[in-house]
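Subject: Sanity check before I submit

Could someone independently write out the structure tokens for this chain? I want to compare against mine line by line before I put it in a report. The sequence has 312 residues.
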Amino acid sequence: MDGGNQSIVSEFVLLGLCRSWDIQILLFIIFCMLYLIIVSGNIGIVILIIADSHLYSPMYFFLANLSFVDMWLSSVTTPKMITDFLRENKTIHFGSCMSQIFFSHFIAAFEMMLLVIMAYDRYVAICKPLHYSTIMSLQKCFGLVVTSWTIGFVHSISQVVVIVQLPFCGPRDIDSFFCDTPLVIKLACMDSYNLEILMKVHCGVVGITCFILLLISYTYILLTVQQSSKTGASKALSTCTAHITVVVLFFGPCIFIYVWPLSITWMDKFLAVFYSVITPLLNPAIYTLRNKEMKNAMKRLRSYYRDSNVNV
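---
Independent answer below. Compare away.
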């Protein structure tokens, strides 16, 4: 687009989740509590994995990264949503809107890639146990994480570069609680149909590809564990079930919002809340409550602080 096609809209208006003031006050209290649990829970997991040497393995290294990114995924949109519950005019500056789009897609794409890496890690651990330490070396783990961050950055910046050049000259109401790519594109003063299709394909390449790779990985794992001993199969199945649950909870809403939109406003809002608030809330519970090593690590940490207090 030519350089003269600049935006004259300096801010957008977020319509939020609802219009009722009483309901907004209730939602303010609920989401404040949920956000505090998300931040404290995910930070707790990261600290626990760093502090306990028994958890120094690729699986928990990736889990620490997942908790870290879940915390930031929620932090991109939730604080703004919470403060807007107390405001009559829910406006957001153009630059802040572009930042929300960038970081939400950056972090979401990274999490998708990270879930694929975690599936690959479980595949190697279960299907090639004798070669696990060689294949999943510390250098390989860092390389995979850095690659995921790079893919997430490229995916996100390529969208923002296009959106920031669109001519926004009139409508500025966004019927959501944060700036989202499909909703912002529709406000452009141009025929946005082709661009919307392009963005769906762009998101689909990342989302659907990762989802298919995950389905293939876990299908192969589950077929392999059927031939193992009952104890090994039971443990592997338990681990895979937790991972698959996270995958479904995260990918389901993303696919329906960005790849196969339902075009139902209240449903889009519900799904957006689900993957930006509920999923980061459930992930720590799914991984800690179903993971024996994590529960043992928490017991060791409690024992350490109890003994320290006794000695003092």
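---
OP: Matches mine. For the report I'm noting this point. The chain has ten helices and three strands.
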